[in-house]
Amino acid sequence: MTRRKTKDLVCYLEDHECGEVLAQLLESHPDLRGETNVIAKSLLGDVSAEVTSKEVAKQVRDLGVDRLWGRTGRKPWGYVEPGEAAWELLEQAVESVQNDMKRRMRAGMESAAEMLCQGVVLGLYRVEKSGGGEVVDYAPDFPLETAAYTVSTLVEMYPKSRRRAAGRRIIEGVEQRCGEWVKVLQRVVEETIPSSKRTKKRR
What we know:
Blueprint: H1 15-28, H2 33-45, H3 49-61, H4 65-71, E1 73-75, E2 78-80, H5 82-106, H6 110-130, H7 134-137, H8 142-155, H9 163-172, H10 182-191, H11 195-202
Antiparallel strand pairs: 1-2
């Protein structure tokens, strides 16, 4: 009698179901945690600033103006200006990358977090210089302000004593390609450093 082959059900699982399977597997076999962490570290560390920059630029440019008009005008809570709606849409377009950056930082993957940060900056610079679509036209300050906010967010996740060095690394990775933004980004980094240390440096 031919034995029927067991069907591999793992390939049919959704992402959240894979997470549940992994949790149960590690609970039953804690000896696998070391190997699992090695794989997780490899996945989390596989980051490219260049690839990220292209993804960010694409997410922004793919926003259709029809989505913008769907959010503007009179609403039950008041009137929404096109600029306000555009800013909200643009924030949502880069939010997932910013969250990935913070997630890696919390996991102790500092280099990967910095790569993602650089990717956001470069992607937004690309949008400003090469055009970001009609939605950006309604929020022209978004690229630079969001790049600065992203750098500030990551640098502030470091201990105060390490913020200047972290900011320097991030800026060095982008300064050759977004020269006119460098002074703004440097100022943002300096603002994350305790005032006593800034004063000491000036002396």
